[in-house]
Design goal:
The chain has about 800 residues and is an alpha+beta fold. The chain has five domains: about 230 residues, no CATH class; about 190 residues, no CATH class; about 80 residues, no CATH class; about 180 residues, no CATH class; about 100 residues, no CATH class. Helices cover about 45% and strands about 15% of the residues. A hairpin with a 6-residue loop joins strand 25 and strand 26. Helix 8 packs antiparallel against helix 15, helix 8 runs parallel beside helix 17 and helix 9 packs parallel to helix 15. About 0% of the residues have low confidence. Pfam families: Adenyl_cycl_N (PF12633), Adenylate_cycl (PF01295).
């Protein structure tokens, strides 16, 4: 590269960078622009007068940073001389913004992702100190009204192949090169050093990137200390395609609307392998050769074009229409609230042009553009389309991995975690409350709801029917039901979890055979919201490696069947016994029982129990299976945070709640060293909670006046194993067994391994003396499940959840996940 060629290329890259920076500032509000100017100061300086100051030796200073007028005034107002820093080189190389910023997808509410690029020679402890300071700066910016995210990124991060976990911004088992691809095609320089990659032609990058960069640094006129390099994206292995795709699917499960185009882009890249030319390389080639810059260089528009071209090529019309809809909605969101300007007019013209190109009618555009036209049915249909697209991409990645001989990647720990995240999101089973994605959930609130329980003799499906209109509205006759639940509590849980029912919603109730009214529904919805959704539910990667355990439960008493209405209960009755067995008639004042639970995989479930005595005892037996209640010291338990009892009785509600809570605490007290049994009454029967000395588990036994206590009937939870299977396995295996999940437990024998295989119905098979490689066995099992998930069978979605694998400790009591990768 001669000097003239260098200067020409550098001029074009710099002009392109300035153009992107100018567009980004144009879209940002004045407040966000000022925050963007503050960020370099907070990182460049470490001064007591500036937010983010640290005494612990945090690295600071950005190469080639010169304060602008706003920044100089900010420093001078705080008694700092802007020109006092005379050093030439600093540990922070540069700040680069990336993502949607400066693209047509950027709106005034868009977050700002900034990479804090640092030297590879920065020690790890200093890197961690800087990352901690950046987290503070992000919080500080949010307090000022700007959503700024700072990511400390070492210059050798993509060359070394280091990575984090799937639930972070790193790429799990991927080598992260596709994150680098996104960075190169969407970033612009805020301040600091220049990146070498933009100066290397695509031909040279494909030929021998490392040697070309080495020659670049040797140029006589070049100041090497003004440049740094993240590496090439030209040659990626199949494992990187698969790993990056897996990570995108993982992120897309929670935010499918946001991640849809990126996931299909990975699918498109994989379909072109091994002749893939990444979008960043195409963009670089175009920037170097172009005279002017326009829509054809917009990162989000290029992403849409690449994805739509791929879907058109494979003839996937359904996903092509979905991608168009997501693209249009993203542009619509981006122009929301923007002041009138030439840039805004350009975006509106683009939206009109693409709508015309797609043959969209004005009525369809109006329906799509107006939030008023959104209803529960259309939102649920849209969610299902997003889900189907996600699963298609997942299957395409599985096919790609098999085709290119990287089946071992499917069996990595990350793949198992991903499969369970998908499973927890899409699997439907009785009692599970399906939750909407956060991106569309905000549109689901209804002004008016009618909740109707048809009479027993009607031809309608049994259960509670939810209609989004008033009960006295003639439109009810033509309105489609949006949800049907077998029980009222499950219905209210779904309405609350999906933010359909809020404090502003007007509720009508029609049910002749139930004690439910709108006041009870509002009260239950408020209790559910406070108990489960006061904080954001976050599922970590470690949670998905373990068994699916209940985190917290709400016991709902006498909601649908309030038995206190049926008895005339005097004070003398209540003084004799308690509300579980009161008066000479030994009445149990608990009627209907429902339990709403949240588990470690983020699933919300609702199960109902029999009315009265049978349901109470079965509830108590089920509570004893909850890990959240059995792994911590009983005397230190804060029951209200884990288990909340709510009584909705018209009479004696607080007393019923208190008595049930006392019984639960008494049973849990059996786990303590000083109390091994607890006796209580429910209706006419006496029960005893007793510790099993061999397993240290607690069992509930019903006493009989005709037999010795050792022969009394043991009460088992319906969610555990049946006795004929429970007797074949260690108590720890029985306790960890989970309905709906295939699990393998390895137990060490004198020679080889004993394997307990627990299927989705908690049935057990046992294999003895396994001497082969456990990793190879896990690989072969997962290959079978992967092949099943890739079939066209309608039932194949169940197999998206790969089995779980565990190893028992030598004491047969402790259990930990079996992992393949060494981390």
């Amino acid at each position: 590269m001669d000097k003239a060629q260098f200067e020409k290329r550098f001029s074009k890259v710099s002009s392109f960078n300035r153009g992107r920076f100018a567009i980004a500032r144009q879209i940002m509000t004045k407040n966000v622009n000022e925050v963007l100017d503050l960020v370099p100061i907070l990182i460049h300086y470490n001064h007591p007068a500036i937010p983010g100051y640290r005494k612990n030796g945090v690295p600071f200073g950005i190469d080639m940073f010169t304060p602008n007028d706003f920044q100089r005034k900010y420093l001078q107002d705080r008694g700092i001389d802007p020109d006092e820093k005379t050093e030439t080189f600093w540990p922070v190389y540069a700040l680069y913004a990336m993502g949607s910023t400066s693209s047509i997808a950027q709106g005034q509410k868009s977050d700002l992702d900034i990479w804090v690029c640092v030297s590879k020679d920065l020690p790890n402890y200093e890197m961690n100190l800087l990352a901690e300071k950046c987290r503070f700066i992000s919080s500080f910016c949010k307090a000022l009204g700007a959503d700024v995210n700072l990511f400390v990124t070492a210059e050798n991060r993509f060359i070394s192949g280091e990575h984090g976990t799937m639930d972070t911004e790193d790429c799990g088992s991927a080598q992260s090169l596709f994150l680098l691809d996104e960075f190169y095609r969407s970033s612009f320089r805020i301040c600091g050093r220049y990146i070498v990659w933009y100066m290397i032609s695509v031909e040279d990058e494909l030929r021998d990137y490392a040697s070309v960069v080495e020659d670049f640094y040797k140029l006589d006129w070049l100041i090497k200390e003004q440049w740094f390099d993240f590496g090439s994206v030209a040659k990626c292995s199949p494992v990187e395609y698969f790993g990056s795709g897996m990570w995108l699917v993982y992120k897309g499960i929670d935010h499918p609307l946001k991640a849809l185009l990126k996931i299909i882009l990975m699918e498109a890249y994989a379909s072109e392998y091994p002749h893939t030319i990444l979008m960043s390389m195409d963009l670089k080639s175009s920037v170097i050769s172009s005279r002017t810059f326009g829509l054809g260089h917009d990162s989000y528009y290029l992403l849409y074009k690449k994805v739509s071209k791929y879907l058109s090529k494979i003839g996937d019309r359904d996903r092509l229409e979905l991608v168009r809809k997501c693209f249009y909605l993203k542009l619509l969101e981006a122009i929301d609230g923007q002041p009138q300007s030439k840039l805004l007019n350009k975006r509106k013209i683009l939206m009109r042009r693409v709508a015309k190109l797609w043959d969209w009618s004005s009525s369809y555009i109006e329906k799509l553009s107006s939030k008023k036209n959104l209803n529960l049915s259309s939102i649920k249909r849209f969610q299902n389309q997003l889900l189907e697209s996600l699963l298609k991409s997942y299957k395409a990645l599985l096919r790609f991995s098999v085709t290119h001989g990287i089946e071992y990647a499917i069996t990595s720990d990350d793949a198992g975690v991903l499969s369970r995240k998908i499973y927890a999101s899409i699997d439907r089973y009785p009692g599970k409350i399906m939750q909407s994605y956060s991106e569309v959930g905000n549109f689901m609130e209804e002004e008016t709801l009618s909740l109707i329980m048809p009479s027993e003799n009607t031809v309608c499906r049994h259960g509670w029917h939810v209609y989004p209109c008033a009960i006295d509205n003639i439109d009810l006759l033509s309105t489609r039901v949006v949800y049907i639940a077998p029980r009222a509590v499950e219905m209210v849980a779904w309405l609350t979890a999906n933010r359909v029912l809020t404090s502003r919603t007007k509720v009508y109730v029609s049910a002749r055979s139930s004690s439910v009214d709108y006041k009870k529904i509002k009260r239950l919805a408020d209790d559910i919201d406070r108990f489960f959704f006061s904080k954001k539910i976050k599922v970590r990667e470690d949670d998905l490696r373990k068994t699916r355990d209940v985190v917290k439960s709400m016991v709902v008493i006498n909601f649908e069947n309030d038995i206190t209405k049926k008895f005339l209960i005097s004070n003398s009755d209540l003084e004799l016994g308690d509300t579980l067995s009161c008066g000479r008639q030994k009445m149990c004042l608990i009627g209907s029982i429902d339990v709403i639970s949240l588990n470690t995989w983020g699933e919300l479930t609702c199960h109902s129990y029999s009315d009265g005595e049978l349901g109470v005892v079965e509830l108590l037996a089920t509570i004893l299976r909850s890990s959240a209640l059995t792994v911590i010291p009983r005397e230190n338990i804060d029951l209200e945070k884990i288990l909340k009892v709510c009584s909705y009785s018209d009479e004696h509600g607080d007393l019923i709640r208190y008595d049930l809570e006392s019984t639960i605490k008494g049973i849990l007290g059996c786990y303590s060293d000083y109390e091994s049994t607890y006796v209580f009454n429910v209706s006419h029967n006496t029960y005893e909670a007793r510790v099993n000395e061999d397993s240290n588990d607690v069992s509930i036994i019903r006493r009989s006046m005709f037999r010795a206590s050792d022969d009394d009937v043991t009460i088992l939870s319906r969610f555990g194993m049946r006795p004929e299977y429970a007797l074949q396995v260690p108590a720890s295996v029985e306790h960890h067994a989970t309905i709906g999940i295939m699990q393998y437990f390895f137990a060490r024998e004198q020679e080889g391994w004993k394997i307990y295989i627990v299927n989705e119905r908690n049935e057990v098979k046992i294999f003895y003396g396994f001497n082969g490689s456990r990793a190879a066995l896990v690989n072969s099992i997962n290959r079978y499940y992967t092949a099943q998930s890739d079939s066209s069978s309608a039932k194949s979605t169940l197999n998206f959840n790969l089995p779980q694998y565990f190893v028992l400790g030598n004491d047969q009591k402790s259990i930990h996940p079996f992992t393949i990768s060494n981390k």
